[in-house]
Structures are given as structure tokens and as C-alpha cells.
Amino acid sequence: MAKQFDVVVIGGGPGGYIAAIRASQLGFTAACIDEWKNAKGGPALGGTCTNIGCIPSKALLQSSENFEHAGKHFADHGIKVSGLSIDVAKMLARKDQVVEQNNKGIEFLFKKNKVSFFHGRGSFVKAEGGLYEIKAGEETISAKHVIVATGSNARPLPGAPFDEENILSNDGALRIQGVPKKLGLIGSGVIGLEMGSVWRRLGAEVTVLEALPTFLGTVDEQIAKEAKKAFDKQGLKIELGVKVGEVKSSKAGLSVEYTNAKGEPQKLDVDKLIVSIGRVANTIGLNPEAVGLKLDERGAVIVDDECRTNLPNVWAIGDVVRGPMLAHKAEEEGVAVAERIAGQHGHVNFNTIPWVIYTSPEIAWVGQTEQQLKAAGVAYKAGTFPFMANGRARALGDTTGMVKFLADAKSDEILGVHIVGPMASELISEAVVAMEFRASAEDIARICHAHPSLSEATKEAALAVDKRTLNF
User: Is 449 a catalytic residue?
Assistant: First the structure.
């Protein structure tokens, strides 16, 4: 007889493992199924985020930023460096160590919270008697409630499938064994810009081909323009409005045929090509038809606002459902679903989910952009404050960018906060908290911020909404 659980989670990424832990905390018998393997064939919990996404990319970003600081900025501090070089193998080994530490950390959390773990692919077998039978690797288990958290996969370029040697997804981009002389990126999304930044800092000539006519179209336009100025200055070549054609591979490398924004035919020769044109929901091997689980035309699991599927007691969260493909969004949905199963009122506010691009400068935002407010006809006030007028930013030697507040013209409620500059990923949290409590720009303007700190730029931008900055 199959071992029975109250809650079984299929997928051990950020949404899945958090959902399993929260379910166990709420008194349910919980299990998690995950098939990721490490180099030795053992379990590698954490999904795409931990293994080939958020965590390893940040490790490489940190390493490459240190290298760039040593080569270009240490001299400003009176630090002399000679014979500077990069050991790519060592850098990749450190990245792998960081990943392994996170893998082991999740294993520990499962033991601590009494979550049963099954290593292998999870797939539906049948539904019978109010229970769902699930294949969990080599075993078969059953559950009253099932949470599908199977994540997403990189979208390949039509006609140029990933080989992870020359045509790379985020996976292969994290495993390049040496600094390529010329690196091409198709798509200027988060993954493309972050990986492009890593290899540019280490010496690669990087060209980004973007189909859209605008740079970072989902970002506030003023912030995106500021970011592009910084990237242009760094030497990151970004071509907008292109149409990519055939990708040809040879012993010499790759050639990408495309037309530019003027419609002129062009060719880009590169050693490696990273394709970053979005991600698709992963339901490979899930066997949804066995129980009648409905998917949409894109292959994502169809859910309502509370992450319920068309089946009783079957839920889905994270990248495999609608909404932004962000690890922290998946985590919040995982907690909310576990609490809903327990009869509580789990809640996720999509409007206060922060977005971050970990380039240098960092880009972070929450809420609505100025172009969205204009399109919706919302009357608003805007306030900005540049980091060049911030004492801590000057001391850091990084004064690129600004903080921008958007507030309702009548109520002064904060509608959006957008940051490009140093430590934007950390600074945005204040804005998230403020918006979750429906604060006004005046509230932030009245709060005492430590001096000298980067967060003073947040206060000053809030003051700027009322045109009363104190330091600019």
C-alpha cells in the first residue's frame, strides 16, 4: 500500500520546498518530490533558482564585480594592483560550492521540519477515493492535497536549440570554462543582462540583440534610460528593434544573421551565444492527463486567484502558473497555499512583489511605472533623487542612478518606487513595506533615515514628490 501524506509537493524549488515546510509547520504530514541531481547523482534541492539560476548567477556576479573593482577602481582608493588575472576554474568552483551549501541547507530544513523527501520525478498516476496517487521517483505515494511546483524551462530560439556548449541557456551560461573573446546575447531580459555583465567584466566583448524597440520595456522608462546610459558607458553593446534570423555554427564559432531597426541585414560573429528570450512552464513528465489536470495553451497549469486548479485539493504555484516568474513570488504562493489548506487566509499581493536585476548598477522596482499610470489615466506626482547627491554613494565611489517615487496626486499614496543604482535590491524593501501598509510619500519623507546611508536617497525622493528635497 502506498504511503499516504496529507500534502505532497511536486517540485523542490523555492515555491515547492517552502510550501512543504509550511504545511508541516501547520501540522500536516508533508512530502516533497524533486528530481534535480548534483554532479554525483545525489539530490540537489532548490530547483532552477538554486542550481542554475538566482544563486549561482549572483555568485558569479560577485566574483566578476570584485575583479572589475580590482582592475578599475581600487587605484582610486590608493590600492595598487599588479599582475591582475582571473582563474575562471576557481571562480566556477566557488560558484558550485555556494550552490552546494544551499542544496544542503534545504535538506537540513526538511529534516528539521519533518518533511519527507523523495528523489526523482513526480508524476500523477490516478485519482481514487479522494486521494491522488503519485509516482515519486522509484516509489508510489498518495496524498489528499497536491501542490504542483514544477517551475519553468528556458525558451529556445526557433531553429537553434540549446547545446549548452555554444548556444547556451542560463544553465550553460553559468558553466563557460573560459572568458570568450566575443559573446552574443539574444534578449535583454534579466538573465541576459546579468550574464552579459559577468563576462563583460572579465574581458569579453558583449553584444546584446533585443527584438523590442525599447530597452527593458517593463521597467519605468526614466529608470531604463538611466540604466542603458550606464551599460553603454561600460561597453555593453545593446542593439534594439532587431529581428534575429539564422544562427550558423562552425568550428570557428557562431554567426547570427539579423536585421537591425532600420531593416538592414547584419551578421554577428561570436564564440558563444546566450539565448535569453523568456521561460516556459515545465510540466514535462507530470502526466496531468492521468487525473484531468487542465493546462492552458502555453502549457501552464490553470489556476484561480488562490492557486486552485480545476481539480479538488490540487494546487499549483510559482513559474508553472500565471504571474511573474520570480522565486520570491513562488515562495509567497507556497506559504499562502499551505495556509489555505489549513483553513487560513493566505494572501499574495501581486502589486507589492519587488523586481530586481542584479547588474551594476542594480535595478529594482515595485508597483506601477510612470507609463502604466499614464496609460491608465491615473493622476500622479513624481519625485526623483540622484545618488550623485548622496554622501554614502560618494564614499562608496558609486553615484550612478537615482530613486524615483510615484504617488497618487490626491491621496499621496505610493503607487510605485523605482531605483537604479548601488544596492537597489536592498533599498527596494522599504518601498515594499510602505506600499503593503498603503503608506504615502509623506510618510517616508517624515521617517528618520540613518546618515550617511544610501537609504537617505529614498527619503529624499519621497520629499521630491512634494518638491522639497533638502540635499539637491
Answer: no
